């Protein structure tokens, strides 16, 4: 029973059995009851859609054309290609870490934590990052050399290997969708329910590549955040400057094709001796890496300054109103504690926004 008069069959009809199963398992903590929440079921449905769409992407790219035989280089952990990219080493390392962690958790009956790790790997690492990284190799134009096609076939093979592994991990939690996806994967002769549980291959251990790619992801995140602060539309190219220590700058340069493509950075400057432009937004992402988004010629500086000042004025008005309440003894004496607490939270939120707006105005001046 889900309680509160909720009919499980109705939930299954609306959201699917796999969605309900995963929602209940992911929210499970040993020894505790859990409250059924509609928003958690909707999040589980979104997860199922994410899995389905990512799987379709992988399977649709397995062949050179519609109706053609799968064209890929099967990935064998025992025979690692010598030219694996940093992103490929990272996803293989993360895949192996997830296999080990989920296996250990299941042996300890920590079902909720195991489900959470699968969710994070599938949604964040595989769908949001590696699928995007792979598009560079899948869709770039051939230059007449055999290398481009070899990279394309290898990328397909690694996508399939990771999808294969994660479907095995997912099957106890979402058996129907994982079995359906498995049935469409090439060269699968038996059902997923009787397939072997995955084991981590010792060769798939690339901690240095994993650390570097996580820093590259932080750089991409920071660039996107800077663009959003000035409302740069998606697809509009803008110059970006990255200042980093020489060692980091060297391998960031190797990932230029991914960083520039995913952030619409043009030109992208990566230099250990770069300096901050006079009018630019800045971000720091760790290990001495700083990112600058020059604003001259990218946005209308006067219009942006006026917009931020207007937002700041409105915020200061709300802040004065909130502080007036909190400084009023009558309000504090009569208002319920939860109302006072909400006003205090609102004040902290306003102060944080006020500080950010002031910083952005200083950067524009």
Main beta sheet: 4 strands, mixed
Which structural class do the helices and strands define?
Answer: alpha+beta
Helix percentage range: 55-70%
Beta-strand portion reads 5-15%
Topology pattern, helix = H, strand = E: HHHHHHHHEHHEEEHHH
Computed Rg: 25 Å
Report the span from N to C terminus.
61 Å
Arithmetic mean pLDDT: 87
- Report the strand count: 4
Widest β-sheet, arrangement of strands: 2-1-4-3
Total helices: the number is 13
Report the uncertain regions.
Answer: none
Task: Please state the overall shape, judged from the principal axes of the Cα atoms.
Answer: globular
Question: Could you name the key traits of this structure?
Answer:
365 residues; alpha+beta; 4-stranded mixed β-sheet; 13 helices; 4 strands; globular
Question: Could you describe the 3D structure shown?
Answer:
The chain is α+β, with helices and mostly antiparallel strands and 365 residues long. The chain has 13 helices and four strands. The chain has a four-stranded mixed beta sheet with strand order 2-1-4-3.
Briefly say what this structure is.
The chain is of the alpha+beta class and 365 residues long.
What's the SSE blueprint?
Blueprint (H helix, E strand, L loop, with lengths): L7 H8 L1 H10 L11 H23 L25 H22 L3 H29 L6 H25 L4 H10 L22 H23 L8 E6 L2 H9 L1 H8 L1 E6 L9 E7 L2 E6 L6 H26 L2 H6 L2 H28 L1
Parallel strand pairs: 1-2
Antiparallel strand pairs: 1-4, 3-4
